Amino acid sequence: MQEAHARVYAAIAAIPRGRVASYGAIAARAGLPGRARLVGRLLGEVPDGMELPWYRVLRSDGHIAMPPGSRGFREQSRLLRAEGVEVKNGRVPLSRFGLDADIDRLLWGMPGG
DNA sequence: CTACTGACCGCGA
DNA sequence: GTCGCGGCCAGTA
Q1: Strands A21-22, A57-58: parallel, antiparallel or unpaired by DSSP?
Q2: Residue A92 and which of A26, A46, A66, A79 are 20 to 30 A apart at CA?
Q3: What CATH number should be reported for the domain holding residue A40?
Q4: pLDDT for A47
Q5: Does A113 fall in a domain?
């Protein structure tokens, strides 16, 4: 396992329950700005048995990355809703559940978009 | 070496 | 909402 990979996994593991983050945000937090694709690739190769909240990672627009209706898609929606995250039409409102949603509210005073 | 693909991203039209 | 384009690599043929 390369160090960069370990940092990506650590960044994902650090997403609080009930919150979500985009691939790009994870890459940035792992010290790898601009490398969202690497994050996506790594999520497809999570070591078996590794406990990781992979379902808290979404695309930059809040959409679930996997094909609608697929196994992973349904599983991801289920797990997210199970911890209180709103999933509608395969999308999560990042303005409310995104990692930096709090900061946005503090800066702009815009509760929930 | 080139070409294509992929759980991505931002911009512009 | 859609599409295209360039950027980002890493794996595979």
Answers
A1: parallel
A2: A46
A3: 1.10.10.10
A4: 79
A5: no
Residue A84 CA and nucleotide B6 C1' are separated, in Å, by 30
Structure confidence at residue A112 (pLDDT): 47
Got the DSSP string for A20-82? BEEHHHHHHHTT-TT-HHHHHHHHTTPPTT----GGGEE-TTSB-SSPTTSHHHHHHHHHHHH
Q: Is A105 near strand B, with its CB below 7 A from some atom of it?
A: no
| Number of other CB atoms surrounding residue A13 within 10 Å | 13
**pLDDT tens per residue across span A52-78:** 999 999 999 999 999 988 999 999 999
Instruction: Give the nearest nucleotide to A36, CA to C1'.
Output: B8
**CA–C1' distance A112–C12 (Å)?**
44
Average pLDDT over residues A41-55: 90
